[in-house]
Amino acid sequence: MALPDAALRRPPLDAAALSARLVRPGGLWREIRVTGETGSTNADLLHEARAGAAEGLVLVAETQTAGRGRLGRSWSSPPRAALACSVLLRPAAVPPAARAWLPLLTGIAVAAALRAEAGVPAGLKWPNDVLVADRKIAGILAEVHGDAVVVGIGLNVTLTAAELPVPGATSLLLEDAACLDRERLLAAVLTGLADRYRTWAAGPAAAGPAAGALREEYLCWCVTVSREIRVELPAGPPITGTAADVDEMGRLAVQTGSATTLVGAGDVVHVR
Questions:
Q1: The whole model's pTM is what?
Q2: Is the same domain home to 258 and 179?
Q3: Are 134 and 270 in contact (CB under 8 A)?
Q4: Strands 57-64 and 31-38
Q5: Tens of pLDDT along 42-54?
Q6: What are phi and psi of 99, to 5 degrees?
Q7: Which residues, including other chains, have CB under 8 Å from residue 41's CB and lie 6 or more apart?
Q8: Count of structural domains, the chain
Q9: Of the candidates 37, 90, 215, 253, which lies 20 to 30 Å from 205 by C-alpha distance?
Q10: Residue 237 CB neighbours (<10 A)
Q11: How confident is the model over 237-264, as pLDDT tens digits?
């Protein structure tokens, strides 16, 4: 039976080719695993973290059946239509409070890769979404176990309009991107992530100059700051106001009248 056009543009990932691109002596990434199907790459790497796995393990799934998003949301995609990837990091020299920067740092790496490789005008919605023209193209979820942080990335590559998980989402295919090659995109994301992570995580500087440089770079990519927003909080009523800034700890400063509220976790809606 003939495959639909979208499936014909969905070749499988080659773990050996990815390893040749990304795994090298002295580098951050020590192993690239590709699995055909799993429930959640984050859950799998959290299991590896509990078993003592070292930093630098990357797991990529051709399809996820129970991927996890923020606030307990589930996420899935058709086989080979997206990049579903998690990385295991152990930023031991970074104070726990500063580790909230990891999903933001990862977002920069994703957005930069999309602009450079795919030619799409990606931007970041605080704290963990990558947008193109206010439509979500990728999401990021960081989960902690002890000194380990597992960061998951879900990027819509060749999903058709009928395959999008939620209204308001998009894919590289739908944005007429210059690149739909998942291996090339993943290599660009992981290279950019490794470069930024190693600078940020280099000892006490993570709470000083390196954090300041990361904040400045994040603000260049963030499309939330200066917008009117509503923030749904994990507990308590929502906050409505103007996104004024992102502080040194990665928290969103929301201006409500004459008061400023610092938000460390929440679900942001761009009102206008």
A1: 0.93
A2: no
A3: yes
A4: parallel
A5: 999 999 999 999 9
A6: -70, -10
A7: 59, 60, 61, 64, 67, 84, 85, 86, 152
A8: 2
A9: 253
A10: 7
A11: 999 999 999 998 999 999 998 899 999 9
